[in-house]
């Protein structure tokens, strides 16, 4: 076991390297991941936005956090897809029959997801800047935003790992993100929750997306964040830990 | 003779279905061992158990003198598995695939190892093309080359020629023969009798969960239907015709 542990980080590095090549050699996945959120952003800002009362001047500023979450949810479904495809091909079995840290394969996929989602987020922020998005956030606030988004990505990626490992078909593997992509719509991402009927509003205000969106929005606009930050972090870390445990369990079952 | 694999009364069931009832055989070090059996006979199950991917329900199995369940880590360090489907990463080039495996085997000179294997397997010209552009035979050769990184003492080839055209099949056969000459033990499964006849020192037939016969080809020939002397005209087989027409097509 000694030798295995010593090589754990090295093995993850090799896995990350090869799976990053998959992303850089098929940049179309970045486009596929970002195109829908960008379309939503255009649609909401230039079509619906005029009729939405958010109490802010600039709807792009209001909208951006929710759009980023949608992009990440879409992006993580590729982890499920890639993991599923890896298992279908012999390469997964080859890795398993080698003396390498067993979870290195999973970590390679998870870190790749982190990097590729960071690229998608950057692309979307650039588009938002062109559309008039401006932020008064300082360096610390941006770091906090990056941290929240990274935790959110990890939480969804580990969930995607469970799906990728236990899916029976490619469609099943990639379909898991649909409900998650939908969640921001029933949150404070697009409209203030005050405008919703009571039952919907109760759901919206207590689901993770609202806390995450509100925390990021406050950070972007340079306001005090308050409780939302801790609620958002609790959600992300909680989901991440639970998903990680189940993902590892699903992985051991396959090994 | 030293043994690379010792299997005794191995059992494995999937739910109600008993795939391996009681499998017993030995594989001598440095030999080519062919496990024959029809589809679904359990050949792959045996390979997976020996390669530590599956746990047996009963019996013993030792690979390079390490028990597959108790010392699975040691087993993994001393074997290589080439599964039924070519285990190459299609997005990566041939060279990158080899380097990746060399790094995962924790070799220091991974570039050199990759270069040597590319040379040996005639893949130098294709080294920097993505594996997705390779022909079936080239992909299989790369696959086997990847299995040889780090010089494992034992290599499993699970139906290495299934789905290959005749030329590619002969390419793979040559590779396997060369492997055995270099002292590596080869455990081969196949459903093609000719393949076993061409390659194997030792043949075992798996049927209904048991090894029903095993031995060298000569031994099997002695034990089974006595040779008859018949006079027949030797017609070329379609395979011979095909290969004669195609000739020695240039390998890319």
TrEMBL record, chain A:
Belongs to the ABC-2 integral membrane protein family. It comes from the Bacteria. It holds the Pfam family ABC2_membrane. The keyword ATP-binding does not apply. It is a multi-pass membrane protein. PROSITE patterns: ABC_TM2. The chain crosses the membrane at residues 30-52, 64-85, 106-133, 139-163, 175-193, 229-247. This is Transport permease protein. It is found in: Cell membrane; Membrane. It comes from Sporolactobacillus shoreicorticis. Residues 28-254 form the ABC transmembrane type-2 domain. Its main location: membrane. Keywords: Cell membrane, Membrane, Transmembrane, Transmembrane helix, Transport. InterPro entries: ABC2_TM, ABC2_TM_bact-type, ABC_2_transport, Nod_factor_ABC_transporter.
UniProtKB/TrEMBL annotation, chain B:
It holds the Pfam family ABC_tran. Keywords: ATP-binding, Nucleotide-binding, Transport. SMART domains: AAA. It comes from the Bacteria. The keyword Mitochondrion does not apply. Signal peptide: none annotated. GO terms for molecular function: ATP binding. Residues 5-233 form the ABC transporter domain. InterPro entries: AAA+_ATPase, ABC_transporter-like_ATP-bd, ABC_transporter-like_CS, ABC_transporter_ATP-binding, P-loop_NTPase. PROSITE patterns: ABC_TRANSPORTER_1 (PS00211), ABC_TRANSPORTER_2 (PS50893). SUPFAM superfamilies: P-loop containing nucleoside triphosphate hydrolases. Belongs to the ABC transporter superfamily. This is ABC transporter ATP-binding protein. It comes from Sporolactobacillus shoreicorticis.
């Amino acid at each position: 076991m000694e030798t295995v542990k010593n090589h754990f980080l090295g093995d993850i590095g090799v896995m990350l390297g090869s799976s990053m090549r998959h992303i850089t050699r098929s940049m179309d996945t970045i486009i596929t991941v970002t195109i829908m959120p960008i379309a939503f952003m255009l649609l909401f800002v230039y079509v619906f936005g005029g009729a939405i009362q958010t109490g802010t001047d600039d709807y792009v500023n209001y909208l951006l956090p929710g759009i980023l979450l949608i992009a990440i949810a879409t992006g993580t479904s590729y982890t499920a897809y890639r993991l599923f495809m890896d298992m279908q091909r012999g390469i997964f079995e080859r890795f398993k029959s080698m003396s390498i840290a067993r979870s290195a394969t999973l970590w390679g996929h998870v870190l790749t997801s982190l990097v590729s989602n960071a690229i998608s987020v950057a692309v979307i922020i650039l588009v938002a800047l062109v559309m008039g998005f401006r932020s008064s956030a300082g360096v610390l606030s941006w770091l906090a935003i990056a941290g929240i988004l990274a935790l959110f990505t990890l939480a969804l990626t580990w969930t995607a790992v469970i799906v990728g490992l236990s899916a029976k078909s490619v469609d099943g593997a990639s379909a898991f993100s649909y409900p998650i992509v939908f969640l921001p719509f029933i949150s404070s991402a697009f409209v203030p929750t005050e405008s919703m009927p009571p039952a919907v509003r109760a759901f919206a205000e207590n689901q993770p997306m609202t806390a995450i969106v509100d925390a990021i929005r406050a950070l972007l606009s340079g306001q005090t964040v308050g409780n939302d930050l801790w609620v958002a972090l609790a959600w992300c870390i909680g989901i991440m830990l639970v998903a990680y445990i189940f993902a590892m369990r699903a992985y051991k079952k396959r090994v | 003779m030293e043994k690379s694999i010792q299997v005794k009364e191995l059992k494995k069931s999937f739910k109600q279905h008993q795939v391996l009832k009681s499998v017993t055989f030995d594989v001598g070090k440095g030999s080519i061992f062919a496990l024959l059996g029809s589809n679904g006979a359990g050949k792959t199950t045996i390979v997976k158990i020996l390669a530590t991917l599956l746990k047996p329900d009963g019996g013993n199995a030792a690979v390079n003198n390490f028990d597959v369940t108790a010392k699975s880590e040691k087993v993994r360090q001393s074997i290589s598995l080439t599964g039924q489907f070519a285990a190459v990463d299609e997005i990566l080039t041939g060279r990158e695939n080899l380097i990746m495996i060399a790094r995962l085997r924790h070799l220091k000179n991974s570039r050199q190892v990759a270069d040597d294997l590319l040379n040996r397997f005639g893949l130098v010209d294709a080294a920097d093309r993505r594996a997705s552009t390779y022909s079936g035979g080239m992909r299989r050769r790369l696959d086997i080359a990847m299995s040889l990184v780090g010089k494992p003492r034992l290599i499993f080839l699970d139906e290495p020629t299934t789905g290959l055209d005749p030329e590619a099949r002969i390419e793979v056969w040559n590779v396997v023969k060369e492997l055995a000459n270099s002292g590596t033990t080869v455990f081969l499964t196949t459903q093609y009798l000719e393949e076993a006849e061409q390659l194997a020192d030792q043949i075992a037939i798996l049927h209904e969960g048991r090894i029903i016969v095993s031995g060298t080809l000569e031994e099997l020939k002695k034990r089974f239907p006595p040779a008859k002397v018949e006079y027949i005209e030797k017609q070329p087989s379609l395979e011979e015709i095909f290969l004669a027409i195609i000739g020695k097509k240039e390998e890319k």
